[in-house]
Amino acid sequence: MTFAAESATRATALAIFQAGVAAADPAACVGNYLHTAGDQLVIGCDGNIRSGNWRRIHLLSFGKAACAMAQAAVQIIPQTWLAAAGIAVTNYENAVAVDNVQVFGAGHPLPDQAGLAAAETVVGRLKTLRAGDLVLALISGGGSALLPCPVAGVSLADKIATTQLLLASGANINQINCVRKHLSRLKGGGLARLAVVAELHALVLSDVLDDDLSAIASGPCVPDDTTFAQAIDILQAYRIWPEIPDNVKNHLLQGNRGLHAETPKTGDPVFETAGHHLIGSNALSVDAAIAAAKSSGYATDLFSKQLSGEARMVAERLCLHAQAVCAGLHRPLALVAGGETTVTLRGTGKGGRNQEMALAFAIAAEAYGLDCRWTFLSAGSDGRDGPTDAAGAIVDNGSLARIRAAAIDPAAMLNDNNAYPALDAANDLLKCGATGTNVADLQVLLLHPNA
Question: What's this model's pTM, rounded to 2 decimal places?
């Protein structure tokens, strides 16, 4: 492949990714599900409607798309219908001023004191609710870390330490959330419990597989059917229980003995006046990416809408699938996937799950002799992969040669979970900045027949 052709193909992969991100534009998604009709606020579309003439609406927005969602909502809802200024809590990169909204920047993926202050502000607002009020919750991915609200007896430092251990253990997002729900006053239906005097409706932008509402931002407005016992089992199964702070262990053990209230379950009366709409998701973004690939002249193949598992193992599976496809390849083909992989930290390097997957794919392509011209993009729709400034990476047939030309061993870097500097040396990091949305990850593999 010539340099010009390589650059053009990488640009196409990026455009396909960007089409997927655009499909999850928070403002457009809110606008599709929120409007006014006379003196009524109408929530929903396509016949699935909830409406009312609420005159004390409490706007709470949290997650990586919080500001964009709040901005769209305050442009639709008359200011006189709002009980007070709205509250938006988002990661620092996405924090922007919004008219008639108090905006909090907070830490992600690890919670911080600013997030705790924001959570206390939310709890304070919920204490002002009256019968007949509406709490309109605008929820997007990242809300679990951004809105930490520890139970009594557990400190923010305890929660941070527990979250760090879970993130490094290889536990999946549902397992991490199970633990976090049982340490929080807001997660796992906790917000619904605090808002029970009023009506509650959530507009949700999904960043999880299967669009499980109990997993998005740890499900503050929906039932949680996990238990204290399950939270304990998860920490023990991943062999991190001995390292968990004593305050956390004590709370979970006491909860398992019935000394603390469980999270509200399916059928709990706190959900009788609560509703929700799913307004955007990774699956919809995957569909948009496929459409963009077709528009760019590629045949398309959906690899998965539920990509999960260890990032390097998923990369190997994708490579083997591509190898089988390449055997009969006669025209350019785009393999598209979406989901969220995990990384079990064994090294001390820098990177994220998408960077690890990209580097692992390049290594697997060489090891298995992937016999076609290929370009692979893996990136987070939020523009950030792990604790780095990159969304992910774009690798191709020449990536490993470029890494080795910088006197770097790709395999050693992968084993040290140190994909970032290796990909940086190859000029393969994808840095697009914060996108203002979050619907998990997207993968685009472009395959071209050999000339």
Answer: 0.79
